[in-house]
Amino acid sequence: MPELPEVETIARVLRDGTGIYNTSIIGCQITGVHVLWARTLATPKPKGFIKQVIGQTVQSLSRRGKFLVFSLTDYTLLIHLRMSGDLRVESAQDENGKSRPFEKHDRLALEFNNGQRLVFNDMRKFGRAWLVKDSAKVLGGLGPEPLDKGLTHKIFFDMLHSRKRQLKPLLMDQRFLAGLGNIYTDEALHLAWLHPLALSHQVTREASGQLLDAIRCMLKEGIRRNGASIDRVYRGGDFQNHFRVYGRAGSPCPNCGTPIDRLVVSQRGTHICPQCQQLD
Ligand SMILES: [Zn+2]
């Protein structure tokens, strides 16, 4: 599943027209819509969506947690890629000037006045799009951004201690902190030498600071490497070649050489070094 660094990478390249997307979509006006899988639209229903989105211009593109946030003239378009969603930009017409055929798992396409189109492809159909006047209706429940400087060590420590939960499910809870998923949580917990089952209100002040620093370190490293290209979703990232523990069961811990263990926490495959991440 795309996490904060992958979504951030997509937002940046769509904005700048670099990398795997060769055209910026900023300033483009939406002239056509193809709803290929109606349930991709969380709100409104296809008829209303088409009516409202046509004629809108993309003014800016940003990210909040794992959401892409497209600011349009009068609305905000939010896209969550969930398990297998991906976006691509392509010419709406083929070499013969005919409408380019869609691919098997394409769910939604927005056509622009420059002849390009943005296509939302999602094999597993969990991805969603929202067109809203007030983005807080969708984003309002999210926790703070981990890279936001306003999130201080003290605030993070207080957040951990106000919950009494195991670290891994808590860190992946988007209402607690926005943007972490399975990969970056495992990587950050290893870097901070914390066990995924450790209880949040028992983490010391020092370990809490190390955990926040570790989360930021792994997210920044992921962004620097354009995210991780796994789970069928390719966007030119190579962080998957630099994982410390994720998906490396049986391989040596980069810190101490002990073979990495795989356990299941909250139904998610979880990777730890049994030597570096002990449960007190
Ligand atoms: Zn180790």
Indicate the topology.
Elements: H1 4-16, E1 30-35, E2 41-43, H2 46-53, E3 58-64, E4 67-72, E5 76-80, E6 85-91, E7 106-112, E8 116-122, E9 128-132, H3 136-139, H4 153-162, H5 167-172, H6 182-191, H7 205-224, E10 261-265, E11 268-272
Parallel strand pairs: 2-9
Antiparallel strand pairs: 1-7, 3-4, 4-5, 5-9, 6-8, 7-8, 10-11
Helix pairs in contact: 1-7, 4-7, 6-7
Zinc ion (ZN) binds near residues 253, 255, 256, 258 and 275.
What is the gist of this entry?
The chain has 280 residues and is of the alpha+beta class.
What labels describe this entry?
280 residues; five-stranded mixed β-sheet; alpha+beta; four-stranded antiparallel β-sheet; 7 helices; N-terminal domain of MutM-like DNA repair proteins; Helicase, Ruva Protein, domain 3; binds zinc ion; elongated; single chain
